[in-house]
Amino acid sequence: MLSQTPLLDHIVILVSHKDLLEISKFLDGQFTLAPGGTHADGLTANKLILLPDGVYLELIAFFDDVDPERRRQHRWGKAKENTIIDWAFTLPSEDDFPAVQKRLQQAGFGGSYTDPIPGGRTKPDGTILKWAVSTPRDSQGNPAQPGSLPFWCFDRTPREKRVPYEAEKKPHSAPEWAKVVYDAILGGNWNYGVPSGSNNARHDISLSSGDTTVRLVFNGSKPGKGELLPGISFEIEGLS
């Protein structure tokens, strides 16, 4: 049994730095955009698309003048721009994470998640954010392909400073090893929670065969499809 249901924290989309600076014109009032900032390594900056349930889409870009070798060594340095490249779970408390690591060992995964590694970024207003991240490793200890499994993000400064969704909110078939990991993390039903605790939408994960891709489906009053950026599409299902 899971002592704490994993929460979907955010989904990562890689864009060019030019598009990051101009993202507001792509959104055209459809979503709430919050300023992100520059990450501690100085290689990337981001902005956040805030969703009402506390989950967010992270639009991240490498600075144009970044040394190519340093970029290649970055976790997302070889990823294709204008694609969903990764996604993150979190837990109500970082103290619950060792139990997740233990379940994976007991499940016979063969790989592992790293112990949380400190990270952070500085917001445009000068606020310093701190967190720790754990990423998956395969059975040989090599980093797993980003996006094939979630990484974990644990706040070490208050999450509302990193994701001000309440303050910013406006009124109005996969490889078998992946299944083993999701079963161990989420239990049999593959349901996740969201930071607000809302149950007004379906919160679940499913796997499909073929190339590794992530498909975003939101719940809303106006069903349809749209595009965040060229090559990044989303779907809105009608409220049930």
From TrEMBL:
Residues 8-169 form the Glyoxalase-like domain. It comes from the Eukaryota. This is Glyoxalase-like domain-containing protein. It comes from Penicillium chermesinum. The lineage of its organism: Eukaryota, Fungi, Dikarya, Ascomycota, Pezizomycotina.
